[in-house]
Specification:
homodimer, 8 helices, 344 residues, ER (chains A, B), Quinone Oxidoreductase, Chain A, domain 1, MDR_fam (chains A, B), alpha/beta, 2 domains, Rossmann fold, 7-stranded mixed sheet, 6-stranded parallel sheet
Chain lengths: 344, 344
């Protein structure tokens, strides 16, 4: 068999602010791969089916000397991230051909030779009623972030009020539904009227567009809040601090308002002590081992039955990755951003 | 018996920044009281022995329409705060003459008629080896703040590193000693070399003057820290966030850097999620009921035996209150600021 194309998405330069498709990331179709003969070195070859595009990826587009919880991307190398691949060939009995792998560092390539030493990589079974895309979204890292941290830190009590930012995204939309299942009243915000509509459909009691409505006014009227799920930081976090109830819990999951243009200083943290606030920083990787079995036993069936809803914004082909990365940073995606690289 | 003088300290105007003795607070000796005949209305008459001057009092010097956890002082009325009084006459069998009361709203007057309905007011027994002043300091609210919150939130483990701001103050110095008793390494800062010396005496492994030494440099060298006890906010809190370890615990007790001149925005809170930080806002009033019996059984004996050390900055006479309030806001006190209003 002739060598096959092995297109990839390269990290080309560190973005100044927003990542620019074709500049900071470049689609490259020049490489080929000999699928039948490429050496496996004890590992296995996958065909990439699905890649996830997530907000945290912006943090990896940095100079390698800047430390962070995630590895920086290497200039001239393929991007990588959460994804699903089908095992084509294998020299590793734990990863047999025909099975599927889920990993957090799947290269943005059509084919990759992987080793089991790669961090967080495992064989995954699919619920027949769910598409693979769900396994990088509501049944993947974003859904796990919401589910595991809500379980670990929310201390939610029936009748309380939760406020969720980026409530139409894959994390926020799961949080809204978990809060409703726990009997809470939910206030949620997002950046478009279409997203507001979706948040209402999945159960938000109060949903608003933070670009056209003043968050402080909403919280003043609808608060105080008992739990705030923060994906944005900045002024919305400050507003949440202002209108939290005593013993408010803050689950800090991300601060996308600052990923590209720098974060504003938080002014209202001095309310932490008069209000006896507790704040938890969330990194799903550190909750994963403890909660993963229960998550995979619980959440995919709830998604398959429709009891928990999710929304995907699907693009096709590796060449779309750069555009999708930018859309996610700008909040233009409508649902979990996923790229289908190939059908089986 | 002729009427006695009943001097008091009045709240006269809301400070613009720092409270000015004689302007925002005024000593007034014009009133008298008929000790033997003043009506008690079912309550009791106290002679004030000791008054506490604490940083939080600045927050009560505000316009009454501004909500907070503490009541605002009323212009033209006496200040009040933590204090000890001796009961002179009584119509309340729970507060018999000859006993002593501890309360959080003791008027800044030589004599006051009180009622048991006043918030947090109770008869207190003194360890014969301790002075009454200790009961508003290391054995009072500041000591309780440190002891109760450390017990509740620090999750301290032997061998960890703690960082304590205002480590020479009544809260910070207790935290340093609790951390050492739990087997931690302690870094502590304060604003004078004399305070640095005291912090070393009570066990701090690393003690520095934040006015002459760069906090970031110290933490870069001596950190990372596992627990940060914050009494100051601002740049020191930002430095602590930068040099905290994963799973760092932040106990936010006060932010005196902003009480008089406004608080700087916190820039590094976005490190909460990559570092899985937990932050707890502390208000001792909300921990008091749960921990008070154990506190009073444990701490006064440790103070009396010298196992836990404390330092007092004692002034005499109500006329000194205004100066002491300013000194505390400026950090010029050297030890717990206490005013002895009268000997028994």
């Amino acid at each position: 068999m002739a060598p096959a194309r092995n297109a990839r998405v390269l990290f080309s330069s560190i973005p100044k602010d927003y990542p620019i498709p074709g500049e900071t990331t470049v689609y490259d179709a020049s490489q080929t791969i000999d699928i039948e003969n490429v050496p496996l070195n004890g590992g296995f070859l996958i065909k990439t089916l699905v890649l996830s595009v997530d907000p945290y990826m912006r943090g990896r587009m940095r100079a390698p000397e800047v430390a962070s919880y995630s590895l920086s991307y290497q200039i001239g190398e393929s991007l990588n991230g959460y994804g699903i691949g089908k095992i084509i060939r294998s020299e590793d009995p734990n990863f047999p051909p025909g099975k599927y792998v889920y990993g957090k560092n799947i290269p943005h390539q059509e084919y990759s030779v992987l080793s089991s030493s790669l961090d967080m990589l495992f064989v995954i079974e699919k619920d027949p009623k769910l598409p693979w895309t769900a396994y990088v979204g509501a049944a993947g890292m974003p859904g796990q972030t919401a589910w595991m941290a809500w379980k670990e830190y929310s201390n939610a009590k029936k009748g309380e009020t939760a406020f969720v930012s980026t409530g139409a995204g894959p994390v926020g939309s799961m949080v809204i539904q978990l809060a409703k299942r726990d009997g809470l009243r939910v206030i949620a915000c997002a950046g478009s009227d279409e997203k507001v509509q979706f948040m209402k459909e999945i159960g938000a009691d109060v949903a608003f567009n933070y670009k056209t409505t003043d968050t402080r006014e909403v919280l003043k009227k609808e608060g105080p809040i008992d739990i705030y799920w923060d994906n944005v930081g900045g002024e919305i976090l400050d507003a949440a601090l202002e209108f939290t109830a005593i013993y408010g819990r803050f689950l800090i999951c991300g601060m996308i308002s600052g990923y590209n243009t720098g974060l504003k200083g938080i002014k209202n943290l001095a309310l932490a002590y008069p209000k006896s606030i507790t704040l938890h920083g969330i990194l799903v990787l550190r909750l994963f081992e403890k909660h993963k079995d229960e998550f995979y036993a619980t959440v995919p069936p709830l998604l398959a039955s429709g009891d928990i809803k999710y929304k995907e914004d699907i693009s096709r082909g590796l060449e779309s990755v750069g555009d999708v990365i930018l859309a996610v940073q700008e909040g233009r995606n409508n649902g979990k951003a996923v790229v289908i690289v190939a059908e089986e």
